[in-house]
Design goal:
253 residues; Rossmann fold; 2 domains; 7-stranded mixed sheet; 7 helices; 28% helix; 33% strand; globular
Length: 253
Amino acid sequence: MSEASPGDSAVLWHDLECGGYSGDLPLWRELARQANGPVLDLGAGTGRVALELAAAGYEVTALDSDPLLLDELARRAVNAGIEVTCQLADARRLPAIGRFALIVAPMQFVQLMGGAAPRAELLAGVASCLAPGGIFAAAISDLGEAMGAEIAEPSPHAGDGRSWVCSSVPLRIRRKPGGIDVEWLRRLISPTGDVTEELHTETLDFLTPQELEREAEREGLIAEDSRELSHADGYIGSTVVVCRRGPPGRVSG
């Protein structure tokens, strides 16, 4: 739960559902040091990762398909006195936006593509945007583990007469062919106690690290490492698959 003025709803819910996670930030900083060049953050949202890396001195491009989230990211960058290039695009159709030493796909982003075919489009675009020897790192979660996670009943809240109260909690998880649907209950309570609720569903693809490694290799992205991120702050753990762009002849397209 957090208290805030409601502001733009897309920004509000993104921050509540994604913005509190920090368990992966040391790994992205480590990979940025290793890559030592421009960074592309896929599904950047309001800048959880992009702002962290830009503040550390890296040249960062933040890509997202939601203009409202990117506008908020740009505003936060200006307020922090740091520079981030914002790119509005669908990651499944990556435009020619330059060559990057590191491309990151945090928080199960590759599992939001909607199946193997659009994921292959994503990986082909990643390969085309990576500099020779560049690194691609993607976090994926074991959805079987997510299915077994305990879902707490959302607790009631009342307006305090001074501020808005906002909460977003996972309500149920349903298996579907090829993945799961996670249903979130989003609740907004005005200072006077008026309650607005809505259900939001997010679909994630079943994907193992080994499957992602095989798919990436078809696009010339050679797996060379994997890292485990443990459960933290209400977020399930994940495996980060780390690939390097192979010789140009192995990259499709």
